[in-house]
Amino acid sequence: MNFRNARARQPEIVRSIQKDDRYTKELAGDISDLLRLAGRRNWIKYNQLCQLIAEISYHGFASLNNLQTLGEEYTGIIQIDSQYRNIPSKLLQLAAIILEFGGEALYLKTLQILEKCIKDNDEIVPEAKNKLIAIVQAMSSSPAFIKALHKSWFYLRCNKYQLSKRITGINYVLIRHWLQPHFSLYGYKILGIITFVQVSLSLASILYDIWGQHKRKQLQSLHISKGSLQNEKVIEEKDDLSRPKCTLCLEPRINTTLTPCGHLFCWNCLLDWLDERDQCPLCREYLKKSNLIQLRNL
């Protein structure tokens, strides 16, 4: 039997994920409380892993036992394979769970190892080495933009909300699709357009900053080659004034840090903010320290 006509829509998928996210946060809090029994030092060292353990345990238990998650049961949806015919295999579901909650960390760790190998390789020409390192560092900031663009595509096309589901081909279908009310989904399409525009503007801003920094370096090199020390000082002063400012401290950004929602702050300013509340200072989206990306050469 083909279930293509019973595909879940944006409202059911979003509500299901939000419900599961609520339960995993509660489970992570319970695990964190248990970890306190091991001592304050161990709690500080391993507390960031509580959320990951909670997410893998919660979704893994449901997959291994062929059960719906509480969120899927709440909205009446189930997972199905890419052909809309059968329940996905346990191996495929576990692969989707690992990709969803650990894929980004594995990706960034791989890039760190690759960057270290490039730096330690003396056979690579210095100019080529610098370019390769710049490419790797740019790739390390790509997950946030890829996920945001993918979310925009979901709002527009009613497809897969999670990138892991797209990679593994897992879909969602409604159990009793004939009982679901029919209503307009144009609000989600508008949200998809807004999300796409926001990501595009954030990316354009970063590219503009990189281009400006490159032009300033070229100008500095030109003045240095002419031996004009006085002009070099003027350029440095202009550089400080033209540097993008952090919206938290209102000073030029130091150790520019990117949030998954596409906003830029000083590294220390953002960490101090997250010590008080777990949301982005600008858009109030849920945010945790492990999701921050420190940009290099910005």
Produce the secondary structure layout.
Blueprint: H1 10-35, H2 40-46, H3 49-64, H4 70-75, E1 77-80, H5 90-120, H6 126-140, H7 142-157, H8 163-168, E2 171-174, H9 186-226, H10 229-242, E3 256-258, E4 264-266, H11 267-276, E5 293-294
Antiparallel strand pairs: 1-2, 3-4, 3-5
Helix pairs in contact: 1-3, 3-5, 5-6, 7-9, 9-10
Strand content: 5-15%
SS elements, strand count:
5
Low-confidence stretches: none
Compressed to H and E, one letter per element, the order equals HHHHEHHHHEHHEEHE
Structural classification: mainly alpha
Question: Which word captures the global form?
Answer: globular
Helical content band: 55-70%
Task: Kindly report the spatial arrangement of strands forming the biggest sheet.
Answer: 4-3-5
Radius of gyration of CA atoms, rounded to a whole number: 23 Å
Query: Biggest sheet, in brief?
Result: 3 strands, antiparallel
Number of helices, counting only DSSP H or I runs of 4 residues or more = 11
Kindly state the mean pLDDT as a whole number?
84
What is the straight-line distance between the termini? Answer: 54 Å
Tags for this entry?
5% strand; transmembrane; mainly alpha; two-stranded antiparallel ribbon; globular; 11 helices; ubiquitin protein ligase activity; peroxisome; membrane; 298 residues; three-stranded antiparallel beta sheet
